[in-house]
User: Which sequence fits this backbone?
């Protein structure tokens, strides 16, 4: 963790109490003048830090901006995801940045956020609208020891983590629409794009691109999405602090990724099923050139959706566009 | 097809007969002076073209070099694979070149050959030795409408095509070792590396990297491979013309790719099984962190190897390193 991350963490730990420059200096093991410099740096980034001559410093207000140091300070101990965090003000797509990192050999677990994306993308080549400062647009680099065919597991584990983190942070009831959408009251509020580079039987790297519509107003959505999409702030009736949510999501992702690596997919799938709005419903699914209609029965062992067709046959669906029929 | 490709094709069609400049001019629909220029160009590339004052031109000898025009002239009508061909004297890896093309949006079917590769690679990060002028080292760009989990089909179709082309061209009995090695007398003579870029349920592009040890002598192989690898020329006792073989392979690949797109995987798989030395054998397979031992029984519907383990369970293996035990 950087100096500023340590400093923020210490200020946050002190809560409503002030903490003296001397105590901070001792706690962080750095000089008083470096503490003063760190406080100035944090203030310049928008943190309100009050200072009383005899009591010390107190964190009086936090801006709703994303800073790598801040995010690292909130994360605590993670095993893989979030070991390294970068925040860009603007980029084409955080997946592009992470892909470049992947090709340069960067280790798994690196995370890249952007305050806005100029060419954010969703599944199947669709555009993803990423207005500045309104959401969480980020990508995670993974190098899982899985075969390409086992990758639906990653989507399931990621969707379960994002859903749980949203619910934990906001108290809203969030559901999963197979394979990777998070819904609030039937409207999409977050999505996950999985991109991968692989040999036939070895994934070289995989990028989780995650978009969460946090503080978008109705007007922030493209017109064609206004009826089917929503944001956390619309559903909650007040803004949500993005950095807290980001840290919650990264912790949840890291937790599920560890479980996946420990062979605990079944437990993750069970949680997923509990919060999935697709199962038990009549669905129609466009998968490539096929259309499959039937009742979504359960999740298969590799994360596939098992659909009982009108003809009684059980179809194993690993991807595609799902429409819930009734 | 370019002028020189058309010209080569016409000369080749005339066979032992000479064909006059006037006839060539008429056939190709270009002026006599362009024919003369084309003949000079071909001669400068090593083609032996005899000219008799009254009879005309005759193709007396062809160099064992790869030229895009020559390859195109030999290919005839292909649907997808080989619509565009490039030949490099040297490159890091033809897969690298094709990957760049794929990222630039080039259409599927493009093929890149190199006379030598400085960083040729095989499966699972292994080196692939590619000595200058001794083999066929090339890559094919595909954009199949398949999901990542269906990709074993591509390997099966490609291996079947390469095997058949080698047998057709040389008369040697060639076998397939699952998933993608071609053997002559139990020794590896060709391999296929499949690399892909995909979303969870959509392949964006796929690169077939194919290496065929055509005219390597025993000394051309790295020491550690001399007991397990061979070349077509070693097995045949004489050199093999690389351009003819290349055209044969591309035609076979194009044919099988068309069949795959037409939903005829079952027929391809049947041919594959007939020429596979893995089926019916005791095998041990390293797939990721797993080791699977048992009897290779058959090919599953997506190209997976179905292995009956010692415990009687049928395992579905989609990749890995196969050792034939007895």
Assistant:
């Amino acid at each position: 963790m950087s100096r500023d991350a340590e400093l923020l963490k210490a200020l946050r730990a002190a809560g409503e109490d002030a903490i003296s420059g001397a105590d901070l200096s001792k706690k962080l093991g750095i000089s008083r003048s470096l503490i003063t410099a760190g406080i100035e740096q944090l203030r310049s980034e928008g943190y309100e830090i009050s200072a009383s001559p005899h009591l010390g410093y107190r964190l009086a207000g936090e801006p709703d901006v994303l800073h790598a140091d801040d995010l690292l300070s909130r994360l605590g101990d993670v095993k893989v995801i979030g070991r390294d965090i970068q925040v860009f003000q603007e980029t084409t797509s955080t997946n592009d940045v992470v892909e470049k990192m992947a090709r340069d050999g960067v280790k798994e677990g690196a995370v890249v956020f952007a305050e806005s994306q100029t060419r954010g993308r969703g599944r199947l080549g669709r555009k993803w609208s990423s207005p500045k400062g309104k959401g969480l647009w980020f990508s995670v680099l993974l190098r899982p020891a899985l075969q390409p065919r086992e990758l639906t597991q990653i989507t399931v584990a990621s969707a379960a983590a994002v859903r749980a983190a949203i619910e934990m942070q906001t108290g809203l009831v969030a559901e999963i629409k197979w394979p990777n959408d998070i819904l609030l009251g039937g409207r999409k509020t977050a999505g996950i794009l999985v991109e991968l580079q692989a040999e036939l039987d070895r994934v070289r790297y995989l990028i989780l691109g995650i978009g969460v519509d946090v503080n978008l107003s109705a007007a922030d959505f493209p017109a064609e999405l206004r009826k089917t999409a929503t944001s956390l702030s619309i559903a909650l009736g007040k803004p949500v602090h993005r950095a807290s949510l980001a840290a919650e999501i990264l912790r949840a992702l890291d937790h599920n990724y560890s479980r996946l690596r420990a062979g605990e997919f079944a437990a993750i799938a069970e949680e997923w099923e509990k919060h999935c709005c697709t199962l038990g419903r009549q669905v129609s699914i466009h998968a490539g050139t096929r259309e499959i209609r039937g009742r979504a029965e359960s999740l298969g062992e590799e994360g596939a959706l098992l659909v009982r067709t009108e003809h009684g046959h059980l179809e194993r669906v690993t991807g595609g566009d799902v429409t819930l029929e009734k």
